[in-house]
Amino acid sequence: MTSAEQEARAAELRRLLNRAAHAYYVLDAPVMEDPVYDRLYRELLELETAHPALRTVDSPTRRVGGTPAESFTSVEHRIPLLSLDNAFSLEELEAWYGRLLKTLDRTPEPGAALPELAMVGELKIDGNALALSYEQGVLVRAATRGDGERGEEITANVRTIQSVPLRLQFEQPPAWVEVRGEALIPDASFAAINAERETRGEPLFANPRNACAGTLRQLDPKVVAARRLDFFAYTLHLPDDWQGGEGDPPRPTTQWESLQWLQCAGFKVNPNAELLPSLAAVEGFFAQWEDGRKALPYATDGVVVKLNNLRLQADSGFTQKAPRWAIALKYAAEEAPSRLLRLTCQVGRTGVVTPVAEFEPVPLAGTTVSRATLHNADRLAELDLHAGDTIVVRKAGEIIPEVVRVLSELRPAGAMPLALPHTCPECASELVREQGEAATRCVNSSCPAILRGALRHWVSKGALDVDGLGSRLIEQLVEKGLVASIADLYRLDAALLASLERMGQKSATNLVAALAASKAQPWHRQLYGLGIHHVGEVNAKALARAFPSVEALAAATTATDPDTPEAITAVFGIGGEIAQSLQQWFATPANQGLLLDLQGLGFSLAASEAERAAAATGAGSGGAGGDGAPLAGQTFVLTGTLPSLSRRQAQDLIEAAGGKVSSSVSRKSSYVVAGEEAGSKLTKAESLGVAVLDEAGLLALLAEGG
Ligand code: IVH
Known about the structure:
Blueprint: H1 3-26, H2 34-50, E1 74-76, E2 86-87, H3 90-103, E3 119-125, E4 128-135, E5 138-144, E6 150-152, H4 155-159, E7 176-184, H5 187-199, H6 208-216, H7 221-226, E8 230-237, H8 255-265, E9 274-276, H9 279-292, E10 300-307, H10 310-316, E11 326-330, E12 335-347, E13 352-364, E14 367-373, H11 377-383, E15 390-394, E16 402-406, E17 431-432, E18 440-442, H12 448-459, H13 471-479, H14 494-498, H15 505-518, H16 523-529, H17 537-546, H18 550-557, H19 576-587, H20 589-600, H21 609-616, E19 635-639, H22 647-656, E20 660-662, E21 671-674, H23 680-688, E22 691-693, H24 695-704
Parallel strand pairs: 2-11, 19-20, 19-21, 21-22
Antiparallel strand pairs: 1-6, 3-9, 3-10, 4-5, 4-7, 7-8, 10-11, 12-13, 12-15, 13-14, 13-18, 15-16, 17-18
């Protein structure tokens, strides 16, 4: 071959190989058998090795190889890489749309319909943003996002991503093009990478995004090449004056056309993008992918909504860190993997020991979590948790995060199994687990953890409601031995308090005053504050109404005939379990001592004259079903927002008439009182056939006396 023939052959081979790779990796429609590709590839490699002058920047042989870098250099982005603002609900999406209309001066007249702006809906790929620079159609630089202004130059690594074109498929490529998109590792490759790391005893990646970020920062491009990264392009920046040559797609005027342009240029564009004519269509797109995304072979964490018209995009501009014309609408992450750091135990105020997993912080449903409950010893055994395990954590709504399962296949070799300790982590006394009980308990009533819990409960809002006595202070008081019981709180003097950490003269005096004032709290709050197992706010109120003093209540706990009106179980809503718990509590000498102490300190532990008078007229006596209590025996569930009554007011009215307010609907509920935006409780009431009232209905019921 003459050198001209060699040059022509090399060009032909590059064209064939690049087209085959594009068909395979971008279009997912192979046009060449693997052995053919390999033969042509070897021919090109041999030509280039023999005649290094034939090597061009867009040769497919440039994708692999490359010598490992010592480090990465920092480069400035031609155009900063911005971030996106997030919306976590359709309300937030609508608020964003309202702000966008306002910016564009298109807010409708009150009452008029919202103007509809076309949007592009794209999947939010959970990978790593890349900025690719092309000059005269050739990839010259690839960089990570970095801080948005400057990133790390990782061109050699990005060249190994087969779906990133080394040369744009244009007749007259622009002088420069900036393309942004997301690099990712598909789930299957992620699994293979972790499996291999495991056999080599290397630490595993927690998720595909971390694996991708770690890979992009690999110094050896050969490692990157082996990891099979992929890339979806989604943003395009062109020189202002570029209009394109004959046969080239014209300059885009919309995001939708940008995606098409990118596709023509040879990029992989996510096929699930959609042109959406209205906000309603955006909401449909979001809903559709909530489940749809689970079937995709790569991770997504939301959808990105972009104003389609590029001129309107320019008009709306940017905030500090994000464009006004786009928003990321995120799906709530409900489960996420993390690595267990340690197992700790929490001792609650009733002595129950709860195992808690502490793990590497992970974002979950809008917050970052690093601790989750493991419930109890049984659950711990069921999970078969070992030190250093990779766990899957779940958070649903407001519920405390929990550990759903352990990825035992990722367990480090020789890891120790974890179990609850035999002794209390706070006081070292032997822990007890009663037969048939799920809970493991510390039964040492002077355990500092139990004491701290009891004190916190006593001063809490629903109980004695003492301001200025937070957890930190309680910790100090217990640790220094200044307080060994609830009663001791009332023996503290201001001078001593003022000498404690973070306390001053003024806060000390205020606290002493607040404690003194708390002695006047009503009987039901005092009772609730004692923290008797099963005696929550609702039961404390019912008991306080039926038994106007601690003596009456204590006497009732020893009543043997459950059918006498003196018996605790005769009180509406109080079952045998609660009665038994009360009986145990009153039979305990330490508790009897506490009651005497409190009375000595000036607590009445009884209903005041006013409370008794209210009970006598019927309004306050829900208790044993007195005749004057029109709603006695009836249970109400409140849901939604009532037009005029606050929830607290509605509850007070119901309770004053002898009714009970419960938080969950069951067949036994008498009524569900539903206001605006009533949720699942209303649906449940309807399905169970429980009567539903609105506020007016409730007021009528109260007026007519049940
Ligand atoms: S557009 C100025 N489109 O999400 C707008 N970003 O949370 C730039 N991302 O940094 C971003 N999929 O890494 C855009 N279809 C998509 C995306 C996407 C994933 C990432 C991107 C960005 C981050 C913001």
